[in-house]
Please model this.
Amino acid sequence: MNTAFLILLFLAVLHFIYEGIIAPSIRLNLRYKLFSIRDDLRRLRIVHGENIEKELFHNLQSSINNAISLLNRVDLILMVKVHMALEKDKALSEDLKKRMKLLDNCPIEEVKEAKAATNRIVGYALLANTGMWVLYLLPIAIICSFIEKLTNSLKLLIREIICMPESKITRIAPPEEAMV
Model:
């Protein structure tokens, strides 16, 4: 009981340190990188002018602004909610495809790189925001993996026992005398 308490106390302290110090520092660093990408995008708009469509520029800038504002809320629950919303709302899904196609058709490679960098940063935020879940989910994943391997091994052994000729089975495990 004392060991379980100490483990839980250690996890609580570790979780507190991660959520209170480490994750906010990571998110702040990512936020600064997003500001830099947005500044680069604005510079590209000035340099390339009309080669970057106005709608594309506004969409991409809006995407970066969304990433900045959602940085601390990007987690698995948000991912599931967005996926469900896209499945349910076909108009939203079509609008998103249109916005993506607009980006794909842009002739300026730096604009595409800005979007890719934004995606990477949001992915890092997802990892940072769900980082402590690893401590809780890893033991469960290991146990599930072990159970799956054990189940597969047992199924294979059962199949082998059933398929084995009777003469071989009686040699391995001789029959017990009939009970009276």
Summary: The radius of gyration is 28 Å. The mean pLDDT is 87.
